[in-house]
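[job 4471] stage=fold_predict status=RUNNING
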Amino acid sequence: MSEQISVAFIGAGSMAAEHLKLYSTFRNIKLTGIFSRTLAKAQNLAKKYDIAHVCQSVTELFETTKAQLVII
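[job 4471] inference complete, writing structure tokens
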């Protein structure tokens, strides 16, 4: 079995939602965190896609998730 890749997201608009829809289908991808200036949108996407961390800044996103890939 291959190792999971940790992926975090910056932004919670329509493009982020489309990317999340795709990335959530891969078994080797773990959605670890999201940051957006619009907290409510980030929280909604986190709930929908089971993202563990909704962060208040890019720095917090990095320090919390240590993501291997960040989608902006």
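[job 4471] summary: Helices lie at 14-23, 39-48, 58-65.
[job 4471] exit 0
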